[in-house]
Design goal:
Order of helices and strands: HEHEHEHEHEEHEEHEHEHH
Distance between the termini: 26 Å
Strand order of the largest sheet: 7-5-4-3-2-1-10-9
Structural class: alpha/beta
Radius of gyration: 18 Å
Shape: globular
Strand content: 15-25%
Length: 288
C-alpha cells in the first residue's frame, strides 16, 4: 500500500502550501471526538483527532474504529493520529490493529529517548516500514523534548534539533513528518518559552514541499508564538491541555447541578470553543 492518498499527509501538505496550521487536538473520550468534529465542520476547517497510547490501550480496536468513522465521515478533512508511541507494546498494538483493517492515518514513532541519532533511526525504521505497508504515515522526533504528560515517559535531558543532520535522519528513518526540538517542552513552562526560530527556518528551507513539520509542547504559549512558528514552517500543531482542562472543568461543575446529558453537552460546547479559537488562530478556518 502506498501513501499517495494518505489523509494526514494530504491535510498537512495543503496547509504548508497555503501557509496555515492544522490543529491536532488530543482527545480522551468520545465526547471530545464529537466536539472536535462539530467545531471543524462549523468552521469549515481541516483537523486531526489525536490520542496518546494510554487512551488507545484502554479502548483498543472499538475506540479507534469510532474515531476513524467520526473523522472519515465528517464533511471536512479530518485524520486520526497516534501521538508519542514510544513503548514497543503500544506501537505493536497500533500496527496489529492496522493489519486487521483498523488503521490510523498516521502515528508518531517516538524513539527520541535514544542516546544517538543512529540508535533513533535503528529503533524507528522497522516500524516505519511496517506502518507504510498499511498506508500509515509516520512522524518522528529529531532531538529530544523535556517533560512528560498523560502517561508519557518523563524526559529530563533535552537535545535541540541540528538542522544539518535532519535530511540524513529523515532519509534514515523513512518517516514522512518531522517533530523538531527547538526549545519546546511537554507540560508547563517554568520560564517563558524561548523557541529557536532559526532552527525552524533552516528546516523549512530543507523540507518545504516534502516533509511537514510538527510543533509539540504547546501548553501556555502566547498566540503570537503559534503564528510565528506557522510562518516559519510548522503545519501540524499538537494541542492537549487547552481543550482537555476546559472540558474537564466544565463537566465537573455541571455534574454538580445538572442532569448528566446537559452537563456533557455544556462541556462539549466548551471543548468546541477551544477548538474554534485555534482554527481561527492557526488560519485553517474556511480552508475546507
Amino acid at each position: 500500500m502506498t501513501l499517495d492518498n494518505n489523509r494526514t499527509l494530504a491535510i498537512l501538505r495543503k496547509a504548508e502550501a497555503e501557509g496555515y496550521g492544522i490543529l491536532a487536538q488530543t482527545c480522551y473520550d468520545a465526547n471530545c471526538v464529537i466536539g472536535l468534529v462539530r467545531a471543524a465542520e462549523r468552521c469549515r476547517s481541516p483537523a486531526i483527532i489525536q490520542m496518546f497510547p494510554i487512551t488507545l490501550a484502554f479502548g483498543k480496536g472499538p475506540w479507534l474504529r469510532f474515531c476513524l468513522d467520526a473523522a472519515h465521515q465528517a464533511s471536512v478533512p479530518i485524520a486520526v493520529n497516534l501521538d508519542h508511541a514510544t513503548d514497543p507494546e503500544h506501537i505493536e498494538l497500533a500496527l496489529s490493529l492496522a493489519e486487521q483493517g483498523i488503521a490510523f492515518d498516521s502515528i508518531m514513532v517516538d524513539a527520541s529517548h535514544a542516546e544517538t541519532d543512529e540508535e533513533n533511526i535503528a529503533l524507528a525504521r522497522p516500524y516505519v516500514e511496517r506502518a507504510e505497508k498499511c498506508g500509515i504515515a509516520v512522524e518522528v522526533e529529531l532531538g529530544r523534548l523535556e517533560g512528560g504528560e498523560a502517561g508519557l515517559r518523563m524526559i529530563s535531558d533535552a537535545k535541540l534539533t541540528r538542522p544539518e543532520k535532519a535530511r540524513e535522519f529523515m532519509d534514515g528513518t523513512g518517516a514522512r513528518v518531522l517533530a523538531p526540538s527547538i526549545g519546546n517542552l511537554h507540560g508547563a513552562y517554568l520560564n517563558p518559552p524561548n523557541f529557536r526560530q532559526d532552527i525552524l527556518r533552516d528546516l523549512q528551507d530543507t523540507f518545504k514541499g516534502s516533509i511537514p513539520l510538527c510543533l509539540h509542547g504547546t501548553d501556555q504559549l502566547p498566540d503570537e508564538l503559534f503564528q510565528e512558528c506557522i510562518k516559519n514552517g510548522i503545519s501540524k500543531i499538537n494541542i492537549n491541555s487547552w481543550g482537555r482542562d476546559a472540558y474537564a472543568k466544565k463537566l465537573a461543575e455541571g455534574l454538580q447541578t445538572k442532569p448528566f446529558p446537559d452537563a456533557v453537552e455544556e462541556a462539549v460546547q466548551e471543548f468546541e470553543g477551544v477548538c474554534e479559537r485555534f482554527f481561527k488562530l492557526f488560519g485553517s478556518a474556511g480552508k475546507a
